Amino acid sequence: MKRFFAMIFIFVAALALVACKGGEKFDVDGEFTAFEVTEHGGAPMVTSVTVTIKNGKISKFYIDALQGSAVKEGEVITAVNWNEKTKKELKFDYGMKDVGPRYEFKDGAWKVVEGKTSEKEWFEQAELLEAKWLKDGVDSLTLTKDADGAERIDNVAGVTLKDGGYIKLAKQAVENARAGKVVVFKTGLSKGGAAEIYFVEATFNKEGKATEIVIDTRQSKVDGEKGLIWNEKTKQELGFEYRMHYLDYQATLEEGDEGTIEGYKAWLKDNNELEWFEQVAKISADVVATQKSTAPADAIAGVTVVTDTYYELIANAFAAVK
């Protein structure tokens, strides 16, 4: 009996190892992405990892990041911009190569090599990480902190990069692939010059049919000293707290009455108005019902939000599994 259980354990462990190294079979072919928004020098940044599934197997990884810049009036940050090109698109113009200091991993620790500069550009190092994942799986990278406490990838020759979220994003991208969940996003700016990111999560079954569509947006604000600060919650997460029609609701109240969320909900119902998350839910339901990624000829009842970007992303999501 002990030998039987030991054999089961070995078999399960072997399966896990195969899955980790790319032998796992996936139900849906396509490109599956995970992304994360952060702040970089008071400006916006979005980092992403995409895994490509071809004939049921992992065939490619792709890391990229888009940064931005802060707009100042004197010493005050008043707005932000997104860069035109990503780090991958910039290639050698990104400017990491031949810039100091050079880091070296030796005897289990990171050391700064005095008088030396970085030997490889960012995109070259990213490609080495992609190759490592493709060969050995997303659990294959290891990290060691440098003297400043930053975690750097220590087991890929030629790579001295800090882990800019790449490892967790690669793992999430693979999880999305397992679930058939395509994630697509687009960067933008608010009228006030703050960064926004619009995204769609579309889940597809084995037959390539969309079974669920989630449309969402994360907004931000600009602080005069700190620069960009991403909102903690997306529009979906805010729900009724997004308060799309709240000023209209408040206009019906007595002077000095700020109103309540419960009162706002009642006002929406009485006036046949829908909150933002309710409107995009109608768009999602229509796409799932029709399996069409383009806007319908006739407007969807109750939807008053501008939909161009959402349908652009939905079309991109459908294209990702073709």
Q: Beta fraction of the residues?
A: 25-35%
Low-pLDDT parts are 2-20
Helix content: 25-40%
Strand order of the largest sheet: 1-2-3-4
Overall SS class: alpha+beta
* Count of helical stretches: 9
Could you state the order of secondary-structure elements as H and E? HEEEEHEEHEEHEEEEEHHHHH
Question: Could you tell me how far the N terminus lies from the C terminus, measured between alpha carbons in angstroms?
Answer: 48 Å
What general outline do the C-alpha atoms trace?
A: globular
What integer value in Å does the Rg equal? 24 Å
- Give the beta-strand count: 13
The major beta sheet can be summarized as: 4 strands, antiparallel
Structure in words:
- This protein has 322 residues and is α+β, with helices and mostly antiparallel strands.
- It has a domain of 206 residues.
- Helices cover 30% and strands 31% of the residues.
- It contains 9 helices and 13 strands.
- The strands form 5 sheets. Strands 1-2-3-4 form a 4-stranded antiparallel beta sheet. Strands 9-10-11 form a 3-stranded antiparallel beta sheet.
- Strand 7 and strand 8 form a beta hairpin.
- The longest helix is centred in the N-terminal third of the chain and has 19 residues.
- The protein is globular and about 70 Å long.
- The N terminus is likely disordered.
